[in-house]
């Protein structure tokens, strides 16, 4: 990876033509726990165009000298970026030297090629399974609120977890978008509406692969969605049941990171918080942050802190407005780990350890619980036409992109149909929110499907092609289906890489590179006997997992039994009030 030229790095007040990040907001009267000044300098992150123009303006001799200087400086900056004692005001000055924001909104990190991992902090923790049933305390009946932001794929695992908690005698309220009200209520859980529209969020994220907008005109839409979510959280934890009017007094909060302000509500109400997520958000030296681009393993851990800092720069004004006006607590500046993995908040990761084992540098407050499946197949009644079509020939290939809007559904449908025809395969096309499957002429080898539970459908398929949402990926692997992932944004490229690394699918095909030739190549790869054998082997390994039970056990294990909400929180440091979590900014399909 090329180093940033000195001409780009030397000015900490770099002007970005594409994606400005304002860090000059008012932080007066902030609770400044990190020792940094509340007077934030005006710094804007360098983009690709800035880097290119700066490089072209520099002479070759000056550029060579600058790169030599930058090599040593970057090692210094990267090491100090992980130091809690370094003021945040200094860290944000280093951001233009360490990263640029790509056109698609992802963050490309720049580290010297000769930087050694020991230059950064790395701690090897226990390798044993941290969830020991013998250690589970006796939990009294609780009133639990789950603050979940995202698409259907984000909500579904928490419905499964909520049902298990409710079966254990707890009252469970799932607070999420109004789009999923019927889904939550039909599962027998209490529903409370949060702000934000998942269709708007998903559409935004398709155009902006990371958390930053590629078009400044989209910033107001993005920020309003975020604000609607943040300012609905407190009511979700305090209001009576909107259906029955029964009083609700929260005893514990479970949340996923895109809820943004969940840690602040937990602080204000002095209740325990447990975060669960379907993508890695805790710093590790084993793989980079899913929203970053890092070529060298030495920079993997640092990538989490850089993304963390960039996110905070984009949301701190809304968070502090929420703290002051709604929660009536002091605003804060910034603390390291404010999104990723604060030391006092337990995290549970919802994926199979057979697919991605728990990193050795994750501590005992972090659990990899397994995929969380919700049984929808047992109550599903498929249309007769679907049953007849499936029985009429060989197992089909499933192709669908869930809740994600497709930019050119007609063109993509043509590519899918042609690929199936050229490979001699039958295919089920899931229309989803993208509008796929509208054929000019009916094809007997293609079935267009509106909606169908994956746990029913995938075991009737020979292979699957999808966007790479964690839940869809899990369902395909559980059904022993060779998998091709066509990532749109966020963590989807990460899951595509994991599937490919296990040998159960080809390299992921980014949606911008989706083509007839690549889809044909992917289908041929998935149909290889050795790929199916590896898919069968992985499915057998996952068969004994119960991610829902693992998540509930993790929640019980970390719950502070015996602590009253009215007691001052002595087990958690003031870092808790500086913790702000976010997923891709906008939902995960």
UniProtKB/TrEMBL annotation:
Erythromycin biosynthesis protein CIII-like C-terminal domain mapped to chain residues: 446-542
GO MF annotation list: sterol 3-beta-glucosyltransferase activity
Keyword list, A-Z: Glycosyltransferase, Lipid biosynthesis, Lipid metabolism, Steroid biosynthesis, Steroid metabolism, Sterol biosynthesis, Sterol metabolism, Transferase
Gene Ontology terms: biological process: carbohydrate metabolic process; fruit development; post-embryonic development; sterol biosynthetic process
InterPro entries to which the protein is assigned, alphabetical: EryCIII-like_C (IPR010610), Glycosyltransferase_28 (IPR050426), GlycoTrans_28_N (IPR004276), UDP_glucos_trans (IPR002213)
EC code: 2.4.1.173
Domain Glycosyltransferase family 28 N-terminal: start-end pairs: 144-287
Protein family per UniProt: Belongs to the glycosyltransferase 28 family.
PANTHER family: STEROL 3-BETA-GLUCOSYLTRANSFERASE, STEROL 3-BETA-GLUCOSYLTRANSFERASE UGT80A2-LIKE
Protein name: sterol 3beta-glucosyltransferase
Species name: Gossypium tomentosum
């Amino acid at each position: 990876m090329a180093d940033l030229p000195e001409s780009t790095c030397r000015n900490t007040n770099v002007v970005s033509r594409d994606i400005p990040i304002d860090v000059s907001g008012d932080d007066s009267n902030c609770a400044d726990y990190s020792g940094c000044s509340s007077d934030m300098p005006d710094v804007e992150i360098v983009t690709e165009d800035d880097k290119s123009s700066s490089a072209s303006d520099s002479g070759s001799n000056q550029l060579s000298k600058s790169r030599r200087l930058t090599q040593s400086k970057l090692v210094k900056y990267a090491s100090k970026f992980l130091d809690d004692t370094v003021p945040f005001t200094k860290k944000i000055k280093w951001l233009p030297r360490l990263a640029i924001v790509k056109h698609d909104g992802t963050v490309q990190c720049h580290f010297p090629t000769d930087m050694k991992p020991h230059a950064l902090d790395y701690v090897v923790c226990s390798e044993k399974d941290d969830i020991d049933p013998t250690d589970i305390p006796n939990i009294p009946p609780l009133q639990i609120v789950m603050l979940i932001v995202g698409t259907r794929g984000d909500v579904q695992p928490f419905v499964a977890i909520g049902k298990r908690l409710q079966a254990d005698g707890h009252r469970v309220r799932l607070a999420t978008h109004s789009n999923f009200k019927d889904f939550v209520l039909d599962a027998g859980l209490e529903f409370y509406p949060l702000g934000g529209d998942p269709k708007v969020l998903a559409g935004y994220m398709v155009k902006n692969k990371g958390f930053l907008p590629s078009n400044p005109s989209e910033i107001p839409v993005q920020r309003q969605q975020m604000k609607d979510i943040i300012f609905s959280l407190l009511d979700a934890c305090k209001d009576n049941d909107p259906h029955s009017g029964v009083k609700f007094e929260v005893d514990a909060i479970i949340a996923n990171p895109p809820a943004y302000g969940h840690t602040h509500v937990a602080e204000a109400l002095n209740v325990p918080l447990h975060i669960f997520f379907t993508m890695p958000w805790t710093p590790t030296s084993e793989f980079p942050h899913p929203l970053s681009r890092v070529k060298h393993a030495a920079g993997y851990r640092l990538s989490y802190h850089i993304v963390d800092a960039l996110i905070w720069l984009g949301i701190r004004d809304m968070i502090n407005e929420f703290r002051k006006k709604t929660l009536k607590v002091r605003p804060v500046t910034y603390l390291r780990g404010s999104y990723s993995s604060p030391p006092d908040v337990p995290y549970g990761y919802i994926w199979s350890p057979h697919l991605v084992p728990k990193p050795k540098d994750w501590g005992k407050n972090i659990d990899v619980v397994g995929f969380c499946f919700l049984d929808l197949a047992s109550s599903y009644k498929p249309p007769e036409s679907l049953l007849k079509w499936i029985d009429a020939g060989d197992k089909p290939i499933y192709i669908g992109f869930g809740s994600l809007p497709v930019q050119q559904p007609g063109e993509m449908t043509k590519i899918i149909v042609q690929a199936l025809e050229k490979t001699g395969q039958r295919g089920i096309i899931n229309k989803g929110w993208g509008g796929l499957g509208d054929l000019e002429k009916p094809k007997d080898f293609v079935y267009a499907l509106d909606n169908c539970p994956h746990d029913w459908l995938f075991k009737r398929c020979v292979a699957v092609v999808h966007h790479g949402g964690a839940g869809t990926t899990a369902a395909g692997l559980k059904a022993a289906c060779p998998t091709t992932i066509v990532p749109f944004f966020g963590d989807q490229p990460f899951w595509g890489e994991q599937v490919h690394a296990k040998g159960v699918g080809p390299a992921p095909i980014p949606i911008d590179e989706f083509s007839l030739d690549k889809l044909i190549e992917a289908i041929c790869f998935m149909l290889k006997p050795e790929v199916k054998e590896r898919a069968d082997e992985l499915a057998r390994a996952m068969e004994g997992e119960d991610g829902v039970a693992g998540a509930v056990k993790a929640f019980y294990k970390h719950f502070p039994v015996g602590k009253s909400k009215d007691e001052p929180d002595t087990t958690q440091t003031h870092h808790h009030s500086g913790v702000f979590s976010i997923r891709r900014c906008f939902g995960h399909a």
